[in-house]
Amino acid sequence: MSRPVSRASIIGSIVKKDLTEYSRDRLWMFLTLLVLVFMIVIFWVLPDRVDESIPVGISGLGDPAVMAGLETTEEEGLRLVGFDSADDLRSVVAGQADAWQIDGRVVVIPDDSDTKKPAGAEKANVDVGLAFPSDFLAATAAGNRATVEIFVDAQVPEELKSSMSSLVKELAFAVAGSPLPVDTANPQEVYTVLGQDRAGNQVTPRESFRPLLVFLVLLMEMFGMSSLIAREVQTKTVTALLVTPATTGDVLAAKGIAGVVLGLGQAVILLAAIDVLGNQPLLIITLMLLGAVMVSGAAMVAGSLGRDFLSNLFYGMIFMVPLMIPAFTVLFPGTATGWIRALPSYPLVQGLVKVATYGDGWAEVLPDVGALLAWCVALFVLGWFVLRRKVETL
């Protein structure tokens, strides 16, 4: 008399079968490895620095001593670049010439010139220019009004354009050596920052791409798992499994576990390769585990509806596009709109950004974990229900 087989053993056997079949699928194995390697290479190629300063071109102040004095008065976030003439400055701001800095001087090369850039020169991307008149110093010293021409590129934000007038006044009084014409006793400056202030702690291109790269790996798992489910549904492999002691619940549980194992395994490999697991590894793995559960639910739905490679790809794209939107918003910082925050992948992206980029812990990320858990349960239950209906109608 043989002993009854436990449910755990049955589910484990089906999971092993699914993982074996996935590894034998040459197309998805190739795509999985290709995407994984490509994401790792892309991450390490991306710049790891961010320049928070705004270059401002200045002409008409040819005296080196004056320019040296201005450099000591530069405010945080502004970098002054001296030009020999207003015409050179105008052409650079208008995009008709390039400015190259080398050995403390600026070389301007028009776009229609055959002149090559100086060896070892660094390009100065100037979008704002201040052209001081040649008699500016004398006029200012005499108390006369001087006119400063401001060149602004059309794509420069409006708030930066409006701030140029204040900058001109401050530079003018710095050059003249006179105090600002405002009589204040014990002045006090009060700044109110709306939203989260990231000044001095900006996200580098490499860091901003982390959520997107991780999501691409999870979505590859979704496509691969949905393809496996679709193939088993079409070949009636699921029906064959139900002839054995396995129940419908066992099959569904095995599909979910296999999807989570594939997604989490690939995500952990990527996270280790892009140096993310060093900070709060348990919290990051928890986020990725929930993310893998979420895409597994989507894979069940797509696999149940798809009949071949193209239809499976189509239904997978229906899930992929909205899920990737929050990951793309990291590339364009700003306050996410309400409908983006309502997407299932938003808590996962936010959690990854908080932990991997800013070093937050459980206390700060717990609301995102809770929201992600709720979405995981909803999507997994949906996938379970759709796949169960599909299996029962075969």
Q: Largest beta sheet, briefly? A: 4 strands, mixed
Q: Which descriptor suits the 3D outline?
A: elongated
Total count of domains: 2
Class based on secondary structure composition and strand pairing = alpha/beta
Count helical runs.
Answer: 15
For the termini, the CA-CA separation is: 33 Å
- Please state how the strands of the largest beta sheet are arranged side by side: 2-1-6-7
The helix/strand order is: HHEHEHEEEEHEHHHHHHHHHH
What is the share of helical residues? 55-70%
Strand content: 5-15%
Quick check: average pLDDT?
Answer: 76
Number of beta strands: 7
Uncertain ranges:
72-76, 179-201
Can you tell me about this structure?
With 394 residues, the chain is an alpha/beta fold. It has 2 domains: 7-47 and 203-392, no CATH class; 54-176, abc type-2 transporter like fold, CATH 3.40.1710. The protein contains 15 helices and 7 strands. The protein has helices at residues 7-24, 26-45, 64-71, 86-93, 136-141, 158-176, 205-208, 210-234, 237-243, 248-273, 281-305, 309-329, 338-341, 346-357, 362-392, and strands at 54-59, 78-83, 97-102, 105-110, 122-124, 128-131, 149-152. Strands 2-1-6-7 form a 4-stranded mixed beta sheet, sandwiched between helices. Strand 1 (54-59), helix 3 (64-71) and strand 2 (78-83) form a beta-alpha-beta unit. The two termini are 33 Å apart.
